[in-house]
Request: fold
Amino acid sequence: MQFKKEEYPYRTLERLGFKRNKCRICGNYFWSKNIRDFCDDECRIKAGLPKYGFIKSPVGKKQNYVECWQTFVRIFKKFEHTIIKRYPVLARWRDDVFFVEASIYDFQPYCVSGEVEPPANPLLVPQFCLRFNDLENIGITGGHYSGFIMVGEHVFNKPERLIYFKEEGILYIYKLLTEGFKIPSEEIFFHEDSWEGGGNAGPCIEFFVRGLELGNQVYMQYKIVGNKLVELETKVIDMGAGLERFPWVLNGTKTSYEVVFPEVLKYLNQFNLTEKEKIILADHTRTLLIALFDSALPSNISGGYNLRKILRKCFSILRKNNLEVDLVKLMKIHSKEFKIYPKLRRANFDFIEDILKEEEKKYLETIRNAITIVKKIEKFDEETLKRLYQSRGITPEIIKEVKPEVKIPKIDFSNKSKKKEKERPFNLSGLPETEKLYYTSKTRTVAKVLKIVGDYAILDRSVFYPRSGGQDYDSGFIGENKVLEVINQGNIILHKVGRKLKEGTIVEIVVDKERRKQLMQHHTGAHIISGAVRKILGEHVLQAGAEKKVDKAHLDIFHYKKISDREIEEIEKLANSCIKEGRKILIRWIDRTEAEQKYGFKIYQGGAVPGKEIRIVEIKDWDVEACGGLHLENTREADIIVIKGVKKIQDSVLRIEFLAGKAARNYLLKVEGILKESSKILDCREEHVFEKTKELFEEWKKKRK
Reply:
């Protein structure tokens, strides 16, 4: 995609004394003060210049890593930008990605679309980003990282409020480089480029100094419709600059790592490691520190795969060199050295140490298994690699440890994109949005039958809650017809009934109150357990999924090791104390940005929630979540919670099976009945059933032998 000169901020560039040139090597256009016939990217090498011209020959005013960030703050505050805190690296507010890879991820999709107001406008954010596609280059190129700060300058221009766009945007970058970092304007090259992503597009300016791209400024102004570009209503400036690159240029060091984490590298100098190994350990431990601080866990699934991959790379380096380097000690040095994020000093290092111990156990066990298995295999094609990983947890990296000589095709097990649930493909065109009454206290009303689609009736209004967010549907009656299922597609609710209804008729609809109460007890119970789990196991625990039916319920959580019987008892006891305390359950709709700023991003326990306003369910001083489900008004109404058991369903994902209310009471009666029958059969008192059963089992084992 190419844009004309007029699509770029040419007026400002010309006013500043820059001239437009065409690169004779790549054919692209760039702007510079000195007329030159080659650009400052890879083409400079072909033209006979070194890849980087600042090594041992720094440009601008010498500043360290933290001072570079302070310069960004000073310059952009001058241009009335608000400095906001970074977002977590775990992108719980989105349903399409796991980790934040660029600062614009913080504001997609709702701020970019104009649906939601950003936390500030214009703004500057020091966003830590994770990228795992170039791990092999870390310690080689001098500038690659698994985690880095992208300084994001973001402006959201609406039709009714233009803040600034291209011309001012490039001026601010010029001022940053020349006034902030004291880089001579003759050293700056602005490259014309284009950008597209997520259905949007726009021109882009990249800024280079002596061969190093310091950042780029994207002018997001189009949406792609077919083969055409259509103007967006909200026009966005998305400038991203890798902070680690600025002190590198200003200090002229061999690599950027020396100026980004000098204290960590100094600590590692006492060990017999190569320079590359030191850099990998420094980089990977910083990334892991921030990911763990943000409640991301290593695992063999989704985004957690990459965290485990880089942690195991650290273990591998230490194992190969027969060294005992305390990785937690490295993280503690990072926490003090990384002054841009002062909260890291308050990281729970006992928790981090526990995770690393668990991960090391798994790693060593996998290595032991791999030594036996991998030695027998000759061919390592994609099918074999997937089988080894899925059945044994043996990754390509571990295969290389066992057989360094083999060539292994590149394969990514991370599956880093989240999968969206597909809606049922009913043709509902022309139908109005269903008026939803299930959030009111109404359990009966009258409604008009608008349309029959297969076995489903669509009404103009409904008191029936559709299956959503893990909560099962309401049952009841539409007229004399029993409701067998309730689902939603978009904003329309569909009711499955036993017999056909006539379109256009008025019907009475009634919800089964007992069923709804039980579902509400289970849903509120899940929130109560969620709060209890975090108090017992730690704040890192996040929801991985949930199901709330009439006869059973479960809460899936991310946790890095097995939960002990004592911990299960404590969680159940704490959950029931919350019920007895009779805490109020507050439910209200809040502006998305306001909710995120007030409660943080852990409100997205059940995943991403759409819309400008989100429904917040708060159990005071216990649990706060963005949730669309039906809930009780007070925790006391949940009556009782019984945890039936906990089992592992995936690596680092545990399922807590529980019951609440009447379902829990019925379960306890059933268990009590079984105990009574067992005591009769064993001819002992109920409290002696366990000892008697154990005695009989031991006797049976002896006789069997």
